[in-house]
Specification:
2 copies of one chain form a homodimer. By secondary structure, chain A is an alpha+beta fold. Helices cover 40% and strands 23% of the residues of chain A. In chain A, a hairpin with a 6-residue loop joins strand 3 and strand 4. Chain A is globular. The interface between A and B is medium-sized, with 33 and 28 residues. The structure holds a DNA duplex.
Chain lengths: 159, 159
DNA sequence: CCAATTCCCATTGACGCCCATGAAGTCCCA
DNA sequence: TGGGACTTCATGGGCGTCAATGGGAATTGG
């Protein structure tokens, strides 16, 4: 297994630590990352987390912009100033920093959600809501499309 | 880690000193700089700080300009005349000079903001405001772009 | 000689490292 | 196929180390 998949909810202990799911840790180790890069998502109360490759991808994107325009400055301010490194201890736990709690609303439990090349952390309740929203949007999209084409439904369907 | 990342707010003591975040100090040491070069940002109430390489980059930028144009003269006047060196003591603290206080509005607390190749100092309140502005601009930019490309979304995904 | 700055030491609070415990899952064997 | 032993993992807590901060002493410059 080489990508972040499925989801799990873990509890934050009295010292503010939470176990990163063993499966995610295995992916990180396989890719050679001991430290996590974390960045609050733009439009949802979630924080994206992943290896340094996540930051590299943002920096590559910045490199494509004219460095004297505001867009490049904004992007750097966002991914460097708003991002952070998060350490994972020898037991596979990370301490949840304040900016993650503020951005996500996390207090006592953390929902880890695999996203392929990275994963997200959510407040469990908000994650459940968002999941339903996404499902509803996809269902609607599929119904709209199937009136014209079967593109989203190669065999039995997405849902 | 070899770049300035994440942000932290530290307090100025009675003598006007403030601790440079340990992570930033580690980056400076790795690059071999004991002294900081500081220059007030043009369009925001922040001061850019970094090693001598920061000044080098500014000078390289000046060198790219036609020396007969006023722009080159202005740039040189600005980054040499308005820039300053800031010392870091044995404890990793710097004294906040007056021009930084005036340009940023800093009084009792300093927000250190990583920017990759350099970092910035802000008054914490203004930093928070600017952060929200940047996020709003990027969100808008992303929505405009997503009609054509998913470049800002590392997943390239639906959500 | 005074004032500002720098160096040194002390405190405290946060964080990383270690060990322990209990629950859940897996594998093997009868 | 069912049960038991082993492994893995999430979680809790003690302890040492380091960083941020405060204050005093020494040094330097005007």
């Amino acid at each position: 297994m080489d990508r972040f998949l499925s989801n799990a909810v873990n509890r934050i202990d009295a010292k503010g630590r939470v176990s990163v799911p063993a499966h995610f840790r295995a992916v990180l180790q396989k890719r050679g990352y001991q430290e996590l890069y974390a960045l609050g998502a733009l439009d949802v109360p979630a924080v994206d987390m992943g290896g340094l490759d996540l930051l590299d991808r943002y920096e590559a994107r910045i490199g494509a912009e004219d460095p004297f325009l505001q867009a490049a400055d904004d992007m750097s301010f966002f991914c460097h100033g708003d991002g952070a490194f998060v350490k994972v201890d020898t037991e596979g736990r990370m301490t949840v920093p304040d900016f993650i709690r503020e951005h996500t609303g996390i207090t006592t439990e953390v929902a880890f959600v695999g996203r392929g090349q990275f994963f997200q952390v959510w407040e469990p309740g908000r994650f459940a809501s968002h999941r339903h929203e996404v499902r509803a949007r996809l269902l609607k999209l599929r119904q709209e499309l199937s009136a014209q084409t079967r593109a989203l439904d190669p065999s039995g369907g997405v849902a």
